[in-house]
Design brief:
- This protein is of the alpha/beta class.
- It has a single domain, classed as 5'-nuclease (Rossmann fold, 3-Layer(aba) Sandwich), CATH 3.40.50.1010.
- The protein has six helices and five strands; from the N terminus they run βαβααβααββα.
- Strands 3-2-1-4-5 form a five-stranded parallel beta sheet.
- The chain is globular.
- About 6% of the residues have low confidence.
């Protein structure tokens, strides 16, 4: 079975998205699949555009799309997220998208936001050895 991982991006993680991109590029071996929820792409673009400008933000998104698949966020994912007891709706949507995609774990710099997740929650540092096959 191919390992599948859902990566999260929070709008409050303003300075962590470049590190997440570098981590994903470095750590996803051929057999692993990494997903970003569709709404995370727009959040990352917004943050990148504020810091880097429009042209460079588009390059960031292009690079991310070469590394990660996109987990759909549709009506059923949103309904699932609304039924979850997460304090943050954005986190609930990320979790619901991960479940709908069949991800085995959530990788996030904000594990507290996923305390009630029905999936294992790992920091990027904890996920790195697993993804590298160590």
């Amino acid at each position: 079975m191919t390992p599948t991982w859902s990566w999260t991006c929070s709008s409050s993680a303003n300075r962590t998205w470049p590190r997440a991109r570098r981590f994903g590029t470095r750590s996803n071996p051929a057999g692993a699949e990494g997903y970003l929820a569709a709404h995370a792409i727009t959040t990352i673009h917004y943050l990148a555009q504020k810091q880097l400008g429009s042209r460079r933000a588009k390059r960031v998104i292009t690079s991310l799309l070469q590394v990660f698949e996109v987990a759909a966020v549709d009506g059923s994912v949103l309904v699932d997220a609304l039924q979850h007891e997460a304090h943050d709706f954005e986190d609930a949507v990320s979790e619901a998208a991960a479940r709908a995609t069949g991800c085995e774990a959530i990788v996030t710099r904000d594990p507290k936001g996923f305390r009630t997740a029905g999936l294992p929650v790992l920091t990027p540092e904890a996920a790195a050895p697993l993804l590298a096959g160590r």
